[in-house]
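BUG-412 | component: ligand-complex export | severity: low

The export step for 4'-deoxy-4'-aminopyridoxal-5'-phosphate jobs runs without errors, but we want the raw record kept on the ticket for reference. Input record follows.
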Amino acid sequence: SFSNLPDAPVDEIFALNHAYVADTDARKVNLGIGVYRTEEDQPWPLSSVRLVEEEMYRQDDPARHEYLAIEGDLTFLDLARDLMFGFSSASSDSENKSKQRIASVQTVSGTGANHVGAAFLAQHFKPKHVWVSTPSWANHQTIWDLQGIERKSYPYFDASTCSFDFNGAITTLESEAAEGDVVLLHACAHNPTGVDPTKEQWKKIAEICQRKRLFPFFDSAYQGFASGSADEDAWAVRYFFNLTSPPMEMCVAQSFSKNFGLYGQRAGAFHLVTNGANPSEAPLVRKNLCHIIRGEYSMGPRYGSSIVKRILGDSALRAQWQDDLTIMSSRIKRMRQALYDELVRLKTPGSWEHVINQIGMFSYTGLTVKQVLELKSEFHIYLLKSGRASISGLTEKNVAYVAQAIDTVVRR
Ligand code: PMP
């Protein structure tokens, strides 16, 4: 019987979303789950995505529900890799050599990429520890705990300045991380804090990883969504990738949930980068990744990756996707500013600059658990206990209400 099972933790984000949906109060505001919402508080199929869906419907391709290969759609994978690492489609010889360092497989979105990467490394690389930032996306803990790899944490957020705790992070990695340990890094728009290392700070982190032979594991869930530029948001990954003497082994979990608005379609990829010394290594890695995938879920899903493939492979659609990214990232920036302006207007005690300085989908507001719970029970405003607010839940219509509610709970 299963009656003696240990209790399993409930996922805070999905539980909170459930409570929001069940709430019948007309004033309710969802600042919990990380999904993009329009000014009308609606989900938004990207205009580029809609065009492709209409085209797919018109074409009525009888093969559209066929199985993919175990590694996934090869054209999609090439385009996904090129987007991440900045390769052009007409590659030079040196670019082709760089591409050959990488083993790519299609995954069940970003979570699946994190999982397949963790499973592969646990089995074949056998790290003693994985270093995860404090705080981090909560699922990182679950994913690595399920692989039985001991988790260690490095400081990330300096609450007194609401900024990246660079000294804390590098001091810990420098003095405590050991050769062969995995270091989990958010490629951009760190979740939940919204603060990223500067380029100079990234260089130092890379130098430590390279010198101490740590294994960088990049989680890229917001490429193009954070700054509006896919190249800018991939800067850290590309910097690590392009280091020489010696080139580093590393990997990237790539999600298309946010930047293509394909949340439920589970489009993603995992890229393991070899050091390039042995050209037969990447195909061997891919074979082993395929072995894991076949035993777990056979292959990634087809619908979302078909859409991403079509957009990334066509210059006009790609330009339209770029416009879509700008629409989403600029609305979020506008809402940050609107919340900040309201809090300043209300003279809400404390400093709120971090709301406009943080990047990506979230603001790490600095609100306490007590204040978060009061916002929920009295004002029907939902955010995570850590004080993380998904800015996309704000609109011109509700931002004054939210600011007023924050002002009320902060003054108590
Ligand atoms: N990593 C981070 C840091 C995230 O914030 C997310 C999305 N919340 C993911 C990975 C993966 O999301 P998905 O599985 O929907 O691609």
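Assignee comment: Attached the raw record above. The chain has a mean pLDDT of 96.
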